[in-house]
Amino acid sequence: MAKLNRLVGELRAQVKALEEDLRARVDGPDLHGRQEGVYERWHAEWEAALKAERSAASWQEWRDDRVVQAAVAWVLLAVFARFCEDNELVRPVWIAGHTKDRRQLALDARRAYFQENPEHNDRHWLSTIVDYFAGMGATAGLVDEYSPLHQVAPSGDAAQRLLEFWWETDAEGEQLLRRFDDPKLNTRFLGDLYQDLSEHAKKTYALLQTPEFVEEFILDQTMEPALKERPLDGFRLIDPTCGSGHFLLGAFRRLLDRWSKHAPNLDSRTLVQRALDGVHGVDINPFAVAIARFRLIVGALKATSERSLEKAPDFLLNVAAGDSLLFGAPQQALGDDMFSFDQVVFAYSTEDRKALERLLQTRDGEPVAYDVVVGNPPYITVKDKALNAAYRTLYKTCHRNYSLTAPFMELFFGLATRGERPGWVAQITSNSFMKREFGKPLIEEFLARCNLRVVINSEGAWIPGHNMDGTPTVILVARNGSPNGSTIRAILNKGLRENRDVGNEGDGPGQ
Q1: Among 80, 169, 399, 414, which has the highest number of CB atoms less than 10 A from its own CB?
Q2: Residues in domain Type II methyltransferase M.TaqI-like (predicted)?
Q3: Helices (DSSP H) in 178-264: which residue ranges?
Q4: Distance between CA atoms of 68 and 23, rounded to whole angstroms?
Q5: What phi and psi values does residue 258 have, to the nearest 5 degrees?
Q6: Residues 39-59, mean pLDDT to the nearest whole number
Q7: What is the pLDDT of residue 470?
């Protein structure tokens, strides 16, 4: 496996180089090198977004964000391909391989391609990976029509430079500098790539992966009690801020374990799909969704004891790219009984409207409801004036200079089941709402009516890889519905008051 710290920096440089190339391909100073039709298509979509008040960004800001998404998508395509090549998950070798023989196979295949297609360049060669992934049921979702890959393609020279990066060897020419061969097929390294591949994307989307022990703790507090009280068949969990998929992978493993014990006579492929059926995710960042999908695909492949993606079943994944705050907004905020999903929310070309509706609005004609809703929502304030205003209209807790903690709190509870078996809700989020004026409606009007179970203020706690930048966090665990007790178990940090009961205590874990 490649050394991660060095690889992240190297891939970030590849993304930056591709950004420059793709920007010129969209609207460079002259027609030479431009990709035909891209500027017109992008500009029309930007104007439509402005008209629909989906964005207030300038053309340059909007274009640059789309360029970053495309650049990362092409780099990730190479990462996914290299992972598959080195672990022999596919027959073809397009770029390289962890042995000399497989490296030579890649070079021979590329040479044969250009002999058959002498007018093509390395952009076309990279596109053969897209075509191959699209032809396999297990991986088709990685490169579907909504992928930023299809927004703009690199020049031939830029594609060649990307290939040359992967061809680099040590001083002896024996070993590739960047390899992904791993008998355990561990994909957690993709989470580190997710949050650090692009500085622009990291700032724009507040990219930060959830530490594994935090993910496990939150699933312990929500999935385990939920699974004890409701049928396994039909059990549903969603992370509306899924990022690179840590909660989704953790939930998949737990559901697979449950299904294996519940129905031991079922074949492994059926068990895997049953577990995948219970896992759902949405993220505003398309390349986060690509990573989450790839990790689920590899996890599912491992669970079937299969080592070939060509022979793998057509895994059905419930993960989509889109703004869950817009597409999952309460229907009463969007209109009356004649609510029309299509008419209310403008969808970008990278958003699958039907998938988002199925995950966040209606399923089989009924409003969606999940047994468990978990996540790690972004902690930022919304700088885009149009989005800021839209969220403020849709979510009652958006007060003053609110952070995204507020509307996501409403969304999480809105997606959870109610009634006899109310859903479990948990998240790790910024605790700024507990200390600033914007949090007053969230605390006094919204959370006061919720069945909170556990409040863990982790400000001052050192959470590796998460709050090392000083961001104070809090972990909240609740059940949907009204309070059913008089106290909440709260764990405060040393700098605050001693641990004390502050609200509604229930009968869930952690009490």
Answers
A1: 80
A2: 279-458
A3: 189-196, 199-205, 212-229, 246-262
A4: 9
A5: -65, -45
A6: 96
A7: 58
Q: Are 451 and 416 a contacting pair, CB within 8 Å?
A: no
| Longest CA span, the chain | 76
Sequence ranges of the chain with CATH classification 3.40.50: 193-426
Residues across the chain: 511
Alpha-carbon span 181 to 159, nearest angstrom = 23
Asked if pLDDT for residue 507 goes beyond 60, the answer is no
Question: Is the Cα torsion angle 144, 148, 149, 152 positive or negative in sign?
Answer: positive
> H helices of 286-424, where?
286-303, 324-327, 331-334, 341-344, 353-360, 385-394, 405-415
SS3 readout for 464-508 = CCCCCCCCCEEEEEEECCCCCCCCCEEECCCCCCCCEECCCCCCC
User: pLDDT: is 505 or 429 the higher one?
Assistant: 429
Six-digit token string for 382: 């919304």
Name 416's bridge partners: 370
Predicted TM-score (pTM) of the model is 0.91
Query: pLDDT value at position 463?
Result: 62
Query: Environment class of residue 309 by beta-carbon count within 10 Å: exposed (0-12), middle (13-18) or buried (19+)?
Result: buried
Rounded to the nearest integer, the mean pLDDT of the chain is: 88
Question: Over the stretch 183-196, which tens digit does the pLDDT of each residue have?
Answer: 999 998 887 777 77
Other C-beta atoms closer than 10 Å to the C-beta of 343 total: 10
By CB neighbour count within 10 A (0-12 exposed, 13-18 middle, 19+ buried), where does 237 fall?
Answer: buried
Instruction: Quote the pLDDT of residue 207.
Output: 54
pLDDT at 493: 66
Task: Using alpha carbons, select from 385, 418, 423 the residue that is nearest to residue 401.
Answer: 385
CATH fold of 193-426: Rossmann fold (3.40.50)
Please count the CA atoms within 13 angstroms of the CA of 358 that sit on its side-chain side: 14
Give the count of beta carbons closer than 10 Å to the beta carbon of residue 207.
22
pLDDT for the residue 235: 98
Cα dihedral value 340, 337, 52, 149, nearest 10: -40
Output the pLDDT for position 345.
Answer: 83
The pLDDT of residue 11 is above 90: yes
Q: Does pLDDT of 205 surpass 60? A: no
